[in-house]
Amino acid sequence: MEMDHQFPKCQKCNDGILIPLSDYGRDGATIMYKAWVCSNPECGFNLRIDNGEISIGRTIGQSFK
């Protein structure tokens, strides 16, 4: 079964699309769509949820955990 996802267009650059990212919580439970990032690397727009607070436009970096 093929699923056709249509992700929203980035409202900042109007060039990329917003791609959802998932993570794991402290107890190992999956957190679906914890963050959304623009697919256009030149744009860098991102939106994420941390402990119930929404952060917009934070600098994105590699995690070494």
Global shape? globular
Distance between the termini: 35 Å
The order of strands across the largest sheet is 1-2-3-4
Please tell me how large the radius of gyration is.
Answer: 13 Å
By DSSP (H or I, 4+ residues per run), the number of helices equals 0
Please render the helix and strand layout as text.
Blueprint: E1 18-24, E2 30-38, E3 46-50, E4 53-56
Describe the structure.
The protein is an all-beta fold and 65 residues long. The chain has one domain. The chain is built from no helices and four strands. The protein has a four-stranded antiparallel β-sheet with strand order 1-2-3-4, with no helix packed on it. The mean pLDDT is 84.
Tags for this model:
65 residues, globular, mainly beta, four-stranded antiparallel β-sheet
Structure in a nutshell:
With 65 residues, the chain is mostly beta strands.
